[in-house]
Amino acid sequence: MRLNKHISESGVASRREADAWIAAGRVTVNGVPGVLGTQVKEGDDVRVDGRPLPARRKDIYIALNKPRGITCTTERDVPGNIVDFVGHRERIFPVGRLDKDSEGLILLTNNGDIVNEILRVEHGHEKEYAVTVEPAVTRTFLSMMAAGVRIGGEKTKACVVTPTGSASFRIVLTQGLNRQIRRMCSALGWRVKRLVRLRIMHIGLGKLESGRWRDLTPAEIAGLLGK
Questions:
Q1: DSSP code of 123?
Q2: What CATH architecture does domain 3-52 belong to?
Q3: How far apart are CA 145 and CA 147, in angstroms?
Q4: Which one in 125, 136, 166, 171 has a CA-CA gap of 20 to 30 Å to 117?
Q5: How far is residue 123's CA from residue 18's CA, in Å, rounded to a whole number?
Q6: Given the DSSP bridges, would you call strands 191-200 and 103-109 parallel, antiparallel or unpaired?
Q7: DSSP structure class, residue 162
Q8: DSSP 3-state of 155
Q9: Catalytic residue positions, numbered
């Protein structure tokens, strides 16, 4: 395991911070100053400023039903930031984003390695949303949403769209452009009144109440890690 990853997994710093510590000569491995490419084996004595690292952190994976008005940022000076809202005892961060005006399922973790695995478009991971719009939906609108809409100079990927009412539908995306659903609807002349994320991959919102969070089950974690 690379030295910066070993340090980050102890929970004392991010990989970027660990890189800075290593470059500054603050880190030793078995008494020898570490460098950015140093590999660490089980049993190696890794120290920062002469002090041993704490025991390896326990990975945290939680699901939050984010209410409207909460911002998905780790910047603590932002009012309504998601980190302070959750108030977890461990240092965690959101996996991806759910814009301030939207609500529903978002995952948070302290395991940075899993983030890119979940977010990479080429992996085709599904995210499902319930959307309420105005005016009422039409068959043409739904078919155009499903076929892909040109926004920001590119056409969105084809997706599954299912009507659920006169002015509502569900949509399953495999990409995550910024404010994608709102922009798709706007490009076709509709306005999103409410947007709720119901599912990320195999993890569903279920009966989790707005503003509450829960730990993922072992089966859910195994699915995230590809086990």
A1: G
A2: Roll (3.10)
A3: 6
A4: 171
A5: 29
A6: parallel
A7: E
A8: strand
A9: 99
CATH 3.30.70.1560 positions along the chain are: 126-200
∠ Cα 139 140 145 (to 5°): 100
**pLDDT tens across 44-97, in order?**
999 999 999 887 678 899 999 999 999 999 999 999 999 999 999 888 999 988
> Token digits for 195?
């947007």
What are the tens digits of pLDDT across the range 137-186?
Answer: 999 999 999 999 999 889 999 999 999 999 999 999 998 889 999 999 99
CA 187, CA 145: separation in Å to the nearest integer? 10
Q: Per CATH, which fold does 61-120+206-224 belong to?
A: Alpha-Beta Plaits (3.30.70)
pLDDT digits (tens, 9 = 90+) for 116-133: 777 666 667 899 999 999
Q: Look at the block and give the residue holding tokens 């983030």.
A: 115
Q: Are 58 and 70 in contact (CB under 8 A)?
A: no
CATH number attached to the domain at 126-200:
3.30.70.1560
Domain with CATH 3.30.70.580 in the chain: 61-120+206-224
Supply 116's token pair: 């890119």
